[in-house]
Design brief:
Layout: E1 15-16, H1 45-54, E2 62-66, E3 72-76, E4 82-84, H2 87-96, H3 110-113, H4 118-121, H5 138-143, E5 148-153, H6 157-170, E6 174-178, H7 184-195, H8 198-220, E7 229-233, E8 240-241, H9 248-252, E9 256-257, E10 267-268, H10 271-277, E11 281-284, H11 287-291, H12 303-306, E12 310-312, H13 329-340, H14 349-361, E13 363-364, H15 367-375
Parallel strand pairs: 1-13, 4-5, 5-6, 7-9, 7-11, 11-12
Antiparallel strand pairs: 2-3, 8-10
Helix pairs in contact: 7-8, 8-13, 13-14, 14-15
């Protein structure tokens, strides 16, 4: 059975991955119906009037919280309904406070939902308020009776301005927290403080530190020749890669990222560049790309392909490497540490990952399920 925990005044019980709940309190039921999100559009006159009427001042029941963009955000004393602005926020909120999450940026697939609490996995699709091509209409924030919007990611002025605009138009406090890998523990503790869930936030922060410390200890013991040279090959062509945010896990596991690109996130590269880099390993995100490697006139000649050192990144319940860049990447650190350095990591990977899934996702997969997931990586 799953680990029990009682964050703050809530009591959330884990279930095993077959769906059997632990005895105890359940996630409370609440209305979740919401129309399928439309593309963001200008608010019509009636909607604008509702939004304007909803914008409150700072009441005595609210406290000012200074977020990571330096904004003073009025947060209620007991926030129960939280709207995630994007996918990273969805993951942080699910791991920290699943019974306060109002929905997902997109509806979850069945294979993703199988590793999460059933009641929460079934929550509706809300769309995204932030990021390129945002899909959530501001009316949906009000339709879901959100008491707080949370965004985890970049805190640059562009995003701070968006947060101010959405907060002003909806009247719903908008909290912007730093999503940088090195700020994960701080972000967890700050979000836990805002929601009154400091015990659960501290558990997640300390567990995060334990995984990062284990990775640092592993890296410290590596000779230069022990560090694998890795290409992150994203998409159906494998020609989208990263030397920044999307590939931060490689640094954590003592790998050398062969990509030499200037873009801060994702960059399109050429086959000529990939051939010159000659990676020892390829991390792929798309099954169709992996399926054609042996037949491709260029990819098939690379050392990684010839030695069958190609890994397909698992993506359930969330991506293990970069999609989204949130707590789910801790799974990727444990996975790749064991794959790249099998002589230094002695725990059984299936058992280790099952325990980490339970800790993060409130639901313990069976060893058979973990083995099946790991089998898809090769």
């Amino acid at each position: 059975m799953g680990r029990r925990f009682s964050p703050g005044t809530d009591s959330v019980r884990c279930v095993d991955a077959a769906g059997a709940p632990d005895a105890g309190l359940r996630l409370r039921a609440r209305p979740v119906a919401v129309a399928a999100p439309a593309r963001r559009r200008s608010l019509h006159a009636a909607g604008a009037a509702v939004l304007a009427a909803a914008a409150p001042g700072l009441s005595s029941a609210q406290a000012a919280f200074v977020d990571d963009a330096g904004r003073r955000v009025p947060i209620g004393a007991s926030v129960r309904r939280v709207f995630p602005a994007g996918a990273p926020a969805s993951v942080f909120l699910y791991c920290l406070a699943p019974d306060r999450l109002l929905g997902w940026t997109r509806a979850l697939r069945a294979d993703e939902a199988a590793f999460l609490l059933p009641e929460v996995a079934a929550l509706p699709e809300l769309g995204r308020l932030t990021g390129r091509g945002s899909t959530a209409a501001l009316e949906s924030v009000l339709a879901m009776r959100a008491e707080l919007i949370v965004d985890v990611g970049a805190v640059a002025p562009t995003y701070s301005s968006l947060a101010d605009q959405v907060q002003r138009q909806t009247g719903v406090p908008y909290l912007l927290l730093d999503g940088a890998f090195e700020r994960t523990e701080s972000t967890l503790r700050r979000l836990g403080s805002a929601l009154g869930l400091t015990a659960r936030a501290e558990s997640l922060a300390r567990g995060t530190r334990a995984i990062l410390d284990a990775a640092a200890e592993l890296r410290a013991g590596l000779a230069e020749g022990d560090r694998p040279r890795v290409l992150f090959a994203r998409g159906p062509t494998g020609l989208v890669t990263s030397a920044g945010l999307n590939a931060e896990v490689l640094d954590q596991v003592g790998a050398i990222n062969v990509a030499r690109v200037d873009a801060p996130n994702l960059a399109l590269v050429s086959l000529e560049q990939v051939s010159a880099w000659r990676p020892d390993w390829i991390l792929a995100s798309d099954p169709s790309f992996v399926a054609q490697l042996d037949r491709h006139p260029v990819w098939s000649r690379l050392p990684a392909v010839r030695a069958r050192r190609v890994l397909l990144i698992p993506r359930v319940p969330f991506g293990w490497f970069d999609a989204p860049p949130a707590l789910n990447r801790l799974i990727g650190i444990e996975w790749l540490s064991a794959v790249f350095h099998p002589r230094r990591v002695h725990d059984r990977l299936d058992e280790r990952l099952a325990a980490t899934f339970e800790w993060l996702y409130h639901r313990r997969p069976s060893i058979g399920q973990m083995r099946a997931l790991l089998a898809t990586t090769r």
